[in-house]
Design goal:
Serine Threonine Protein Phosphatase 5, Tetratricopeptide repeat, 2 domains, 13 helices, single chain
């Protein structure tokens, strides 16, 4: 299979919003790769088609594709290669979104063993992987392990150039763990550091800046400082609308938090 041609046509489908055609095209390419006994081509298409199904929340349709790709990689004796690690990560992400946290953590762990092993230099991808593993652990209420993975990510990021934004994102994630374990003072310190980085490095334009502001509002709320919490939620709401639009789950959650603050403060919520 000509991978350059494959991705060029696929990108064109997405750019032109021909989403249904993209699925048909990938299925056709998969059939051709299988008929032509092209294992690398099969692996490539399985990963892309699995990702397509994931974006449409059709997780069960992606599972056999990732399994097929992993079986082929193993049969080719390519376990431990970047293709193997990437497929494990894609499959793990699918499992995470499908509510299969334990399976996701197992797959992420195998990928981490590859990318932290001999022949690989710790980089942004490994740090992101540890961040993802932390989020899975948080969803399982395993905050101790979640914190450990974030600290691993930080150790990597602190050795890399141009990593300040990623460090700020990781501080925000770490602060959320501190809040979940009622370490509010520590969470506040981390968030203030994250916000300072976002302002200095991106002038507050990075999409993750809003999450740090919102998290700081949650810390203030938990500490009973409803006026400060409301100010943070108001700013987070503006940023979320700017970055993502108003019809999002994050905006709805922030509005509920803001309403709770106003109730505690005895204020009447403005009509909108």
């Amino acid at each position: 299979m000509d991978t350059t041609k494959f991705f060029t046509e696929l990108d064109r489908c997405y750019a032109e919003k021909r989403i249904a055609e993209a699925e048909i095209y990938m299925k056709s390419c998969l059939a051709q790769a299988e008929a032509g006994n092209d294992p690398p081509g099969i692996v490539t298409v399985c990963n892309e088609l699995g990702g397509y199904y994931r974006t449409l929340s059709r997780y069960d349709e992606g599972t056999p594709l990732y399994e097929k790709a992993l079986n082929i990689i193993g049969a080719l004796g390519q376990n431990g290669t970047p293709a193997h690690g990437t497929t494990l990560i894609n499959y793990a992400t699918n499992c995470t979104m499908n509510g299969q946290q334990e399976k996701a953590l197992e797959l992420y762990g195998k990928a981490a063993e590859i990318f932290s092993g001999p022949g690989y230099t710790p980089d942004f991808n490994l740090a992101t992987l540890y961040n993802n593993m932390s989020l899975v652990c948080q969803s399982m209420n395993n905050f101790s392990q979640a914190e450990d993975y974030l600290k691993r990510a930080l150790r990597i990021l602190e050795t890399l150039q141009d990593s300040r934004i990623e460090i700020a994102i990781t501080y925000t994630n770490l602060a959320n763990i501190c809040s979940a374990t009622e370490r509010f003072s520590e969470a506040k310190d981390l968030l203030e550091q994250a916000i300072d980085i976002f302002l200095r490095e991106s002038d507050g334009q990075d999409i993750h800046y809003a999450a740090a502001i919102n998290a700081l509002g949650e810390v203030y709320f938990c500490q009973g400082d409803y006026a400060s919490a409301a100010r943070q939620f108001e700013e987070a709401l503006k940023l979320n609308i700017r970055d993502l639009g108003e019809d999002t789950d994050s905006c709805r959650t922030i509005k509920k938090n803001l309403e709770l603050c106003r109730q505690r403060l005895g204020e009447e919520a403005p009509s909108c």
